[in-house]
Specification:
The chain has seven helices and 14 strands. The chain is of the alpha/beta class. α7 links the parallel β12 and β13.
């Protein structure tokens, strides 16, 4: 399994030659556009997308869904019922899920997981319950929390199977901060964490070296990837 970090909470997972784009936020991301020419960047790092996974409806997680659905004709959107319905009305192929059972796909099986946050589109349309994704494959299991505070339900996640990696927000204010993400990793019984949702905006600035040390002191491995860099698990 290969994970490429693009920016903010946007990542690409490669599982069995299938490519899963998580929460695309590129074209309207001013932090991103200060560093890279948008078209050059996406052409370099996003050559194929089979699925787009959306944790909730906030613009910094969904703003490029239509862009990538046009670029990759057969892409399938996976999200909660309300978000799926919103994009289906735009002629985009979707698969609606909610808090419930695992659902099988070509890359493995996926479960929509609880999150404590909010979810609304920029135009005011309700975006349903926010969530995360638990992905089980024969290459390992991964948990993508989405934007969330620390919640006790995270203790249920390892009941379904041992995690190789958890992707957690660490910027604070709107989501968990460093200390809460460490507690979350303990709830999840997961030693390897990919940190996301930090440093994009002034309100979620962190000290990266201090964050890594804080996890290390608790026998956890916090990974903070540069934009466009990949991790193999």
């Amino acid at each position: 399994m290969k994970i490429t970090y693009l920016t903010h909470s946007t990542c690409i997972l490669k599982i069995h030659e299938k490519y899963l784009l998580i929460d695309p936020f590129l074209s309207k991301n001013s932090f991103f556009n200060k560093k890279f020419l948008f078209n050059d960047y996406i052409n370099k790092y996003i050559k194929k997308i089979d699925y787009i996974l959306l944790t909730h409806a906030h613009y910094d997680h969904v703003c490029d869904v239509e862009l990538f659905s046009r670029k990759f004709n057969n892409v399938l959107i996976i999200s909660n019922y309300e978000i799926s319905n919103f994009f289906e009305k735009k002629g985009i192929k979707t698969c609606a899920i909610n808090y419930g059972s695992f659902v099988s796909f070509s890359f493995g099986k996926l479960k929509y997981i609880w999150a404590a946050h909010s979810s609304i589109f920029n135009n005011g349309i309700y975006g349903g319950n926010p969530g995360g994704f638990l992905i089980h494959t024969d290459e390992g299991n991964i948990y993508i929390s989405g934007d969330t505070s620390l919640i006790y339900e995270m203790k249920l996640v390892p009941i379904f199977g041992k995690l190789k990696l958890s992707i957690l927000p660490i910027g604070g204010r709107f989501t968990m901060d460093i200390e809460e993400a460490i507690i979350a990793s303990e709830f999840l019984q997961c030693e390897k964490i990919l940190g996301v949702h930090y440093n994009t905006f002034e309100a979620i600035k962190i000290d990266k070296e201090k964050a890594i040390k804080s996890f290390y002191d608790k026998n956890k491995n916090l990974i903070l990837l540069d934009m466009g860099k990949s991790l193999y698990i």
